[in-house]
Design brief:
The chain is of the alpha+beta class. The chain is 16% helix and 38% strand. Strands 1, 2, 4, 5, 6, 7, 11 and 12 form an 8-stranded antiparallel beta sheet that branches. Strand 1 and strand 2 form a beta hairpin.
């Protein structure tokens, strides 16, 4: 059964160029204009068909999605929202634009999406049955302002390094992320696809406005195969 559903129109339209929303209700009742554009950041290497989405700095108790995805290398795309206050914004003033990563997508196929379903995570046998936070299977929590996508094989290696408290691996990932943040020129959003020692890779990206719990959705084609995996960072005021 599909536990979490999402307005399919939203998941499809935000990856189109020139999508504008005017005078939308926003944070604490404020009204803002949003304009979306798509940024391709590289390809995710999927070697096992199982994908993990989580905070890259706290992977130890993560689990992959239940769904088995196609194997291969697939484009990772960001839907970035340019947010402006219509009451004060002046055309051409980039310092008055707040850019946030609203959605991230892995595109397995160009086939059209026939239906969307919530992406369920596998149950962790180590989770505390009395802890609702650990039992969550329909989203992941971010505490570092960063989300990530990686193959289950990459996850096994990286989470093992974190569990062993390997400072070299943690520092390498942090250094790469900080360099990417500098190159992206916007303090409000960054991204990076980087190689791991195993030959796998990991895609990292700023998570909307920062910390929170974020859900993912799978778009299925007419034949029932997954064609897209999308994570929503709660920027779009649907």
């Amino acid at each position: 059964m599909d536990k979490v559903m999402h307005e399919s129109k939203v998941l499809e339209e935000v990856f189109g160029e020139g999508v504008h929303l005017e005078q939308v209700k926003f944070w604490r009742g404020q009204r803002r204009n949003l304009a979306f554009y798509t940024k391709s950041i590289g390809e995710l290497r999927v070697t096992t068909g199982k994908i993990v989405a989580d905070d890259p700095y706290s992977l130890i108790e993560s689990t992959p999605f239940v769904q088995v995805f196609p194997k291969g290398s697939f484009p990772v795309e960001l839907s970035i929202a340019r947010i402006t206050d219509p009451a004060v914004y002046k055309e051409g003033r980039e310092d008055m634009v707040d850019e946030r990563i609203a959605f991230v997508r892995v595109k397995f196929s160009d086939a059209p999406v026939a239906r969307w379903a919530g992406a369920e995570r596998e149950f962790s046998p180590e989770a505390d049955p009395n802890n609702l936070y650990e039992q969550a299977r329909w989203g992941y929590a971010v505490d570092s302002g960063t989300g990530s996508l990686l193959d289950a094989q990459a996850y096994q290696w990286l989470s093992a390094q974190q569990e062993m408290d390997n400072p070299e691996v943690a520092q390498e990932l942090m250094d790469a992320w900080e360099s990417a943040a500098i190159e992206s020129f916007r303090p409000s959003r960054s991204w990076l696809v980087t190689e791991l020692e195993t030959g796998d890779n990991i895609a990292l990206f700023s998570s909307g406005f920062g910390n929170g719990v974020y859900h993912s959705y799978i778009g299925y084609g007419e034949d029932g195969s997954p064609v897209q995996l999308v994570t929503d960072f709660n920027v779009y005021p649907d």
